[in-house]
Structures are given as C-alpha cells and as structure tokens.
Amino acid sequence: MIKIAITDDHPLLLEGLKNIINTHEDFEVVGMYASAVDLSKNIASDAPLVLLLDINLPDANGIDLVKGLKESYKELKIIAFSVHNELAVINSILNEGADAYLQKNATGTEIIAAISDVLIGKRYICAKTQVILNKKTEAGLKQVPKLTRREKEILTFVAKGMTTNQIAESLFISSHTVESHRKNLMEKFQTKSVTAAVKSAIEYGLIREA
C-alpha cells in the first residue's frame, strides 16, 4: 500500500479527501494533520510517501513549508492544493519543489491522477492551473517576494488598521524603523502604498486577512 498523508485546517475537507483517496485499492491514508505543527510532529513517524498539502495553513507560509519539507524528506512527493490561482504563487510553490499543484475544487479523478503521476516521477498540474501557467509572459513568471518575520508582522498590523506609531509601540521599535520597513515592503511588492502591498501579501498567502 502507498502511504499518503493530508494536511488541511478544515475537518470536512480532510475527511472528504481521505474518502476519495481510500477508494483506490493501492492507496492508504496514514496521517491527517490540521496544522503545520501537527504535520511536523507526526510526519516522520507516519512516513507517508505522498503528502497532500494545503498551502494556506494558518500557522505557516506554504512556500516556506514546501521548501522545508523537501529539504528534510528528499523522497516525499508533495501535492500542493490551494484556492489561490495567482501566477506568482503557483510558480513559487513549483519552484520550491512541489510535485503537483491542484485547485481546491479539483475532482476526485484529478486527485487520484495527481497521486499516480507523482509516484512515477511525473509532475501533475490540474487543468485550471495549467490554463493560468499558459498565460505566462515572455519575461517569465513573477516570484512571490521573500519576507522577513518582522515584515510579515508589520504587514499583519497594517492589515488590522494600525498606525505607524501603534505598530512601533507593539513591536518595541521606533517609528522610523517601521517607516523603513514600510518603504522596503512597497519596493518588494512593487506597489505605491503599503495597503496595496498588504492586498498582494494576502493574495499570495503570505499573511491572513484581518
């Protein structure tokens, strides 16, 4: 039996995916994780060969999670799934080593096909995601900006409507430092305002919507 694990913070989706996967006589769901913490605690002992991974978990950045898992578990096949259809997110996830990418509304047939393909070393992209990838420009796909922990904190506070002074007080740093971070964030996201940077960060799954 091929051991498979699933990570998603929605119990109903976890059960639904488990039921779909278990219809295949050669597949067995050995782990169901509701968070990145859950995943990190159990993946070594459960030892799945394939991991279906929601890249929008509340306690981790999906892109960083894929990268870390690939570094720690070289043989692990990762099937990323998400509600995101932004070009930059898809490209970054695949560049970090995901073996497949599915939209969350993928059919049971697509899920089984994705698992079957990654097991034989093929990359699987669902039809809806492939359409998005086909729209790439000649200059290549955009990358999701790499953010520091502090930058993510500041974006999260801005998303909550906090002012520069309020953010400075909360993080025990100067207002000048906050302004420097805001400027850097606008440069990273190539936006003219921090509000626009926040919007992009939410779309890319880097922070949660307030």
From TrEMBL:
Ranges for domain HTH luxR-type come to: 140-205
Response regulatory domain sequence ranges: 3-119
Query: Keywords assigned by UniProt?
Result: DNA-binding, Phosphoprotein
Q: Which domain of life is it from?
A: Bacteria
User: Which InterPro entries does UniProt cross-reference here?
Assistant: CheY-like_superfamily (IPR011006), NreC/VraR/RcsB-like_REC (IPR058245), Sig_transdc_resp-reg_C-effctor (IPR016032), Sig_transdc_resp-reg_receiver (IPR001789), Tscrpt_reg_LuxR_C (IPR000792), WalR-like (IPR039420)
On this chain, the residues bearing 4-aspartylphosphate are 54
Question: Which GO BP annotation is one of this protein's?
Answer: regulation of DNA-templated transcription
CDD domains cross-referenced by the UniProt entry: LuxR_C_like, REC_NarL-like
Q: PROSITE patterns under this entry?
A: HTH_LUXR_1, HTH_LUXR_2, RESPONSE_REGULATORY
One Pfam match, given by its short name, reads GerE
MF GO annotations: DNA binding
- Return the PANTHER family for the record: TRANSCRIPTIONAL REGULATORY PROTEIN RCSB (PTHR43214:SF17), TWO-COMPONENT RESPONSE REGULATOR (PTHR43214)
Q: This chain belongs to which protein, by name?
A: DNA-binding response regulator
